[in-house]
Amino acid sequence: MSSAPKSIILEIRAGAGGQEASLFASLLANMYTKYSQKQGWKTVFVSSSASDLGGYKEFVMEIVNQEAYEKLKQEAGVHRVQRIPATEKSGRIHTSTASVVVLPIYPIEAFEIKPQDIEISFTRSSGPGGQNVNKLETAVRVVHKSSGLMVLSQDQRSQQANRERAMDILRSKLIELEEKKIAGSATEQRREQIGTQDRSEKIRTYNFPDDRITDHRIGKKFHNIEKVLGGNLDPIIKAFEK
């Protein structure tokens, strides 16, 4: 597209590893949130699905800044964690995964969506925002009829704000389909980024016992995991800029 992305949608999903995968997904969500805050970028909650045992099955947020896509596009893929869970009695290291999808959001003028091409429904929000939000039908679900793409936005503000965000996300996904010449759903697009979410399909490994992060694409190692997960992503991001 000729227009530059105005923001990105960052989707994080727990993969292999049960509860540990959900907890790892939460760590990644916190890492990208803290990094965005350090950059002075605005972040907006879109939707989430919590695990019964703690952590996230899925977490989606929007990062509003024109620099976000260029800096974070290499984060897309399967992230793998190796650590000893708090519940592990024998000290055995567990390996779990979480996937990250990075979708650029383009201005409205970049792609027109006709009203007759979509179906919109409203439901009660299950995300943060207090009792008022959860009692009202503020969440918005948009389905693109021909492709089957479905987008849910349940931000805490209002139905109108959710509708606009859902349309932004849908527009981004349709642009991606058009650019890649993919007919049907967004499954193929996502598969390119996250594969099967298996432990062997990874772009980066976070090894807690050795305090080491390895990016398998560029063959570089980084240390101080806690600092990186606290939002200090600059060393990794700068390594990709070289």
UniProtKB/TrEMBL annotation:
<dbReference type="Pfam" id="PF00472">
    <property type="entry name" value="RF-1"/>
</dbReference>
<feature type="domain" description="Prokaryotic-type class I peptide chain release factors">
    <location>
        <begin position="124"/>
        <end position="140"/>
    </location>
</feature>
<dbReference type="InterPro" id="IPR005139">
    <property type="entry name" value="PCRF"/>
</dbReference>
<dbReference type="GO" id="GO:0003747">
    <property type="term" value="F:translation release factor activity"/>
</dbReference>
<protein>
    <recommendedName>
        <fullName>Prokaryotic-type class I peptide chain release factors domain-containing protein</fullName>
    </recommendedName>
</protein>
<dbReference type="Pfam" id="PF03462">
    <property type="entry name" value="PCRF"/>
</dbReference>
<dbReference type="GO" id="GO:0005737">
    <property type="term" value="C:cytoplasm"/>
</dbReference>
<dbReference type="InterPro" id="IPR050057">
    <property type="entry name" value="Prokaryotic/Mito_RF"/>
</dbReference>
<comment type="similarity">
    <text>Belongs to the prokaryotic/mitochondrial release factor family.</text>
</comment>
<dbReference type="InterPro" id="IPR000352">
    <property type="entry name" value="Pep_chain_release_fac_I"/>
</dbReference>
<keyword id="KW-0488">Methylation</keyword>
<dbReference type="InterPro" id="IPR045853">
    <property type="entry name" value="Pep_chain_release_fac_I_sf"/>
</dbReference>
<keyword id="KW-0648">Protein biosynthesis</keyword>
